[in-house]
Amino acid sequence: MTGLEDIIGQRETGRMLKQEVAAGRMAHALLLTGPRGAGKLPLALALGRRLCCAHPTDDGEACGRCTACLGWEKLAHADAHFVFPIVGTKNTCDDYLPSWREMVLENPYTDLGRWTERIGAGNAQPMIYATEADRILRKLSLRSATGGWRVVVVWLPERMNEPCANKMLKLLEEPPSKTAFLLVSEEPERLLATIVSRTQRIYVPRIAEADLAEALQTRYGHPADEATALAHRADGSLLKALELAGQSGEQALCFNLFTQLMRLAWKRDIRGMKIWSEEVAGLGRERQKVFLEYAQRMVRENFIANFHRPEMNYMGTDEQQFAVRFAPFIHEGNVTGITNLLARAQEHVAQNVNARMVFFDVILNMTVLIKMKN
């Protein structure tokens, strides 16, 4: 694991957290928020390791050599507890912990879609249930194993159901001594306002292009030109940069589904449209939401492509080649309608509306919108 100031593009945030720890001003609960792929979870893990470290360095980082640091390297420190969304009310996070550790140790820049796919959740919505709050309460009622800080990392706390959220609130209102709750949230607006009020909010900003390009070169081995291009398109997200670089098949899947959607809608191929909607319906809700976000981005990029300003576009090679012929079909007459159609579908997916109906409705309406005149 890296130090607090070594998190890609988050030197200032890491320095601020180190100063809080060194000055003894560490809040009992932090809420780390910010864009996808900016480094919220890596910061939380680095902070947890620093709090538990027995021999921090002169510059305030974890030493990396003590028993506590070695335990954090494997996410297996006795006073480190992890809470995250799971499937099944009869299960607990302990049942899924080996898989979660494996995912995070492979790459702490991760998201719910990858976790859902790893545990084979399908269309089931991973949640954090009240049993997790009970489990954490039991563990915190025991004495610290090392006599130092205890750290509870709650990944995606917005996934807590109401009973769990209420129990977690009580924990935050009356926290045990030398216990830090680190909440890592993608959608803080979904949290109870009373939970947010009990935390110190830390905003983790997008990674600057220069920092992202440097990391892609030095840590991931991309040539300078390629790293610069990826960083430009990644919108401050290392996760997105790795997807664009082909280290994830998610980007290719979304591109293929998008091109099929538009081609089938143009041809008004009813049989193909039905097959397409069933294929997308079978992806699982998290991947469906990723696709719809991607589709909205591609609509915007193709609309902008009509202005012939390359510096304003953030498309890859395959996307640019497709845009050469497709962009003229996205214009002032239909760009708002298409974007609203995709955004509405995203809302319906989040509300658990029947996916086959949602996506067949999308492609059916697209047959009208795509042929509208400017």
TrEMBL record:
- Which Pfam families would you find in this protein's record? DNA_pol3_delta2
Coiled-coil stretches: none
Task: State the InterPro entries in the record.
Answer: DNA_Rep/Repair_Clamp_Loader, P-loop_NTPase
Top-level lineage group: Bacteria
Cross-referenced PANTHER family = DNA POLYMERASE III SUBUNIT DELTA, REPLICATION FACTOR C / DNA POLYMERASE III GAMMA-TAU SUBUNIT
Q: What is this protein called?
A: DNA polymerase III subunit delta
Which species is listed as the source?
Answer: Mediterranea massiliensis
